[in-house]
Amino acid sequence: MTKTIGDVILRCDNISLSFGGVRALSDISIDVREHEILAIIGPNGAGKSSMLNVINGVYHPQEGTVTWKGQTRRAMKPHESAESGIARTFQNIALFKGMSTLDNIMTGRYTKMRRNLLWQALYWGPARKEEIEHREVCERVIDFLQIESIRKTPVGRLPYGLQKRVELGRALAAQPELLLLDEPMAGMNVEEKEDMCRFILDVNDEFGTTIVLIEHDMGVVMDISDRVAVLDYGRKIADGVPDQVRTNPEVIRAYLGAGH
Amino acid sequence: MLYREAGQFKTSYAKDLAIFPIRQDRWFIALVLIFFGLVVPLIANDYWLKSILIPLLVSSLAAIGLNILTGYAGQLSLGTAGFMAVGAFAAYNFNIRVPELPLIVDFILAGLCAALVGMVFGLPSLRIKGFYLAVATLAAQFFIEWVLTHFGWFTNYSSSGVISAPPMKMFGFAVESAVEKYLLTLGVVLVMALAAKNMVRSSAGRAWMAVRDKDISAEVIGIPLMKTKLTAFGVSSFYCGVAGALWTYCYLGTVEPAAFDLARSFLILFMIIIGGVGSILGSFLGAAFIGLLPIFLNNMAATIGHGTLQADTMANLEHVIFGGLIIFFLIVEPHGLARLWQIAKEKLRLWPFPY
Ligand SMILES: Nc1ncnc2c1ncn2[C@@H]1O[C@H](COP(=O)(O)OP(=O)(O)O)[C@@H](O)[C@H]1O
Ligand SMILES: [Mg+2]
After folding, report:
1. Which has the closest alpha carbon to A206: A151, A141, A135, A133?
2. What backbone phi and psi angles, to 5 degrees, belong to A35?
3. Cα B245 to ligand 2 centroid, rounded to whole Å
4. Domain map of chain B by residue range?
5. What is the pLDDT of residues B107-146, one digit of tens each?
6. Any chain B CB within 8 A of the CB of A179?
7. Is the CB of residue B125 less than 8 Å from the CB of residue B236?
8. Whole-prediction pTM value?
9. How far is the CA of B208 from the centre of ligand 2 (A)?
10. Widest Cα–Cα separation across chain A
11. Residue of A nearest to B13 (CA)
């Protein structure tokens, strides 16, 4: 791969987060560089999902700061992070069950649609034009993910693997600069995993999207990521290129200890 | 294979975005419009217009309002009739206090007043959901009824609390006869139904449904929850408010809080449950079903029972059938008649082949 990894675009400094007595994250600092794929790994309950939630403002850490594109803050609202170019998928599929694939993906365009309610009620002129423009963006995403045939199907009726794909589509429709993927391949068979890996690499390659992903399958992680950060009990125990991390004794211990 | 889209290829996204992309649907809608716009005014008698069709249309409008809030945005409300009352009384008060305003403006202002009140009572939805929100909207229902009965200003200090609606004038024409009132109601309801259909297939509608289906992902995508929920309350109550004004001016002819009690809120809720939660068409089907069922049962009883069935038996029978149907739809077909209609169309597409 000949891509060039840029400067640090997202920097998390000394993040600590607890829920009541449970300390989910302790003093974690992670940098993410532009155009890279960073994998976060670690045993269950290590705080990986919490870390993503801190980055896009779902959780607000008690200590530490997040610097995104030069702006430093303790916390932002989730919709602010969406507006500033961060999109994500969830560990447990969080699609809009009653809506079609297309409508789910169209919601990804929400922050970019400008026409007000009155125009929408008329559905005419500029409002219609806007709807068509954004439809075109979504159709490109649908093409890319090869889900043309389920465009109009309510997502609740789709098999699990396809739902995961639609959820990726919804995030991609926002044309994000930073894409957070929480276990995008969990529960998939080998073939589905291969497809998903290809999509992730293609997104990164074609659009230069920076990606932070959480994944348990070490084979996949070593294959697709530029860098790996390892969390254990809310602490970061390692951070480096895949080969470095694989041979790190502390990582091996954490994984053996957790029964992996 | 009478009904199918074979050969009707959509060559652009614009065509695919058409409100009725299938040709047969367009024909069907055109026929329905011609029937209700031209044929009905010619053939229907005053009884049908005044006592059946007008209330049916107005109920459909209120049902659309509730469907926007409950069916699309997922916020359960029992305050529908309360918001209708706000609209009715606002239209009346603008009408008599600012006589210079055209009646159509009074109706729009009525909608806006109801929208404002709806948004205020929608504020709890930012914190609470489901059952608890239903209770909060129930409070809205009782509070509005109480205010309208206890402050004489709203009823212009009339002693009985019942006042007749002033005569109507629209665009310089007096609206007096049943046909005229019917056509006015039909016009308002059609325009607003079209606007509702357009909103729910645009970004606002997708935001409502997103909040309904999974509020956390909605927020992460950039849909602000507060704005989206309050917009749903506002638009929904606007529809209910205009429906309330029409109920008063075109149907009852009187302005009275008692016309907008909790029972009406429930009736409209039943309409969307039977017609289809989250469907504009379903709002009409549900209103028609609930409006026509008693008439149908009465006629049945008259032909079959030859007067042996007593009136109170009939009333009870009606309740039993209503209750049964509501339970049936809640359990078996939560998307109501609108979904059954869709299934019928899908079957028709394959007909005469089973697959
Ligand atoms: N919303 C929450 N409320 C309470 N505890 C939470 C919440 N989210 C996460 N936790 C706790 O934080 C810890 C880390 O969880 P999580 O980030 O989901 O781990 P991972 O994704 O690595 O499996 C766990 O102990 C979990 O129970
Ligand atoms: Mg997790």
Report:
1. A141
2. 70, 0
3. 53
4. 22-260
5. 999 999 999 999 999 999 988 888 899 999 999 999 999 9
6. no
7. no
8. 0.92
9. 28
10. 64
11. A132
